[in-house]
UniProtKB/TrEMBL annotation:
InterPro entries: PDH/Transketolase (IPR051157), THDP-binding (IPR029061), Transketo_C/PFOR_II (IPR009014), Transketolase-like_Pyr-bd (IPR005475). It comes from the Bacteria. SMART domains: Transket_pyr. Residues 1-164 form the Transketolase-like pyrimidine-binding domain. PANTHER family: PYRUVATE DEHYDROGENASE E1 COMPONENT, TRANSKETOLASE-LIKE PYRIMIDINE-BINDING DOMAIN-CONTAINING PROTEIN. This is Transketolase. It comes from Isoptericola sediminis. One of its GO terms (molecular function) is magnesium ion binding.
Length: 317
């Protein structure tokens, strides 16, 4: 996803004369050819992430469209006050593009981990959050958002699904259909293939979104049915979408489990992103355990031969 983002910046800058890229060292070497082709439009402020957001806010106030890029903890957590004031309070837009995701850069230590980033950005008014699951989704979202003036957070990941699924308008997409009374598992971004593996022989439906905020509430209501049994599997902090899901289903008796990076435990060990996913229960085995807990491990949960085709796809509404 990161390589695809860098590759798309040249055509984005060519297509949108008002777009500038603001960096805090990270990515500067990769974008040297882009900077040479678009003089003055790739701005490196040095290791000053708060100033980077301030510069983006100033550019936006003059009518420019800034794309701001660095690691997630530096972009969101370190500069959170500037997101609130220099962009939000000024009511101007920017596209924040992060790398590192929850623990993609786990070998760099806790300084480079930010599982709470989506929750933090979603807590600020007026933001759209994209969590793409494939490089093609990154490209589509970047080009589409460059033509708007919205405040956007685009969260890149090293993990990805085998193919793109995202609907262009952020709607939920049905990946594995089934009877409406069957439980529903909603996968966010790069968690989809893990969810499909974890639930391959379970009688559950699977839906997908790459835009968890604002959540497609109408699509969720349509899929969930009158008495929802639902699992939401996210690559970010557990319960990140809980408030949005609860609001969408407020008038319905429901049973919901939220699967993500646990809130009550901090892993103080080095290891790969896959090691961290397994330790946090976000690998296929861990996701399956949580879904089985939701379903109660009752007889009849295994999919019958000839059941729903996991390759099938249709829009939620």
């Amino acid at each position: 996803m990161r390589a695809r983002f860098y590759a798309e910046l040249d055509p984005v800058l060519a297509a949108h004369p008002d777009v500038d890229v603001v960096l805090a060292v990270i990515g500067a070497g990769n974008l040297a050819p882009v900077a040479a082709r678009h003089p003055g439009r790739v701005i490196d402020v040095g290791i000053r992430e708060q100033a980077m957001i301030g510069v983006a806010g100033g550019l936006a106030l003059t009518g420019r469209r800034p794309i701001v890029h660095t690691y997630a903890p530096f972009l969101v957590e370190r500069a959170y006050e500037q997101l609130k004031l220099d962009l939000g309070h000024q009511d101007v837009g920017a596209i924040l593009v992060s790398i590192g995701a929850s623990f993609d850069a786990s070998t760099e230590g806790r300084t480079h981990q930010a599982p709470a980033d989506v929750a933090l950005v979603s807590a600020l008014p007026g933001w759209t959050v994209h969590v793409p699951g494939h490089p093609d989704e990154v490209a589509a979202m970047l080009h589409a958002e460059a033509a708007t003036d919205r405040r956007v957070y685009l969260r890149l990941s090293t993990g990805q699904n085998r193919r793109p699924w995202a609907a262009p308008d952020g709607r939920l997409v049905t990946i594995r259909p089934g009877p409406p009374e069957d439980p529903l598992v909603l996968a966010v971004g790069p968690m989809l293939d893990t969810v499909l593996e974890a639930t391959a022989d379970l009688r559950v439906r699977v839906a997908y979104t790459a835009t968890p905020h604002p959540l497609d509430a109408a699509g969720l209501r349509s899929l969930a049915g009158p008495t929802p049994v639902l699992a939401v599997v996210e690559p970010s902090l557990e319960g990140t979408s809980a408030a949005a899901v609860a609001a969408a289903l407020a008038d319905r008796p429901s049973r919901v489990v939220h699967v993500g990076v646990p809130r009550d435990a901090e892993l103080r060990r080095y290891g790969s992103a896959a090691d961290h996913a397994a330790a946090h229960g976000l690998d296929a085995a861990g996701v399956r355990r949580r879904v089985e807990e939701l379903l109660g491990a009752r007889p009849g949960l295994l999919a019958a031969p000839g059941g729903p085709d996991p390759r099938a796809v249709s829009p939620s509404r």
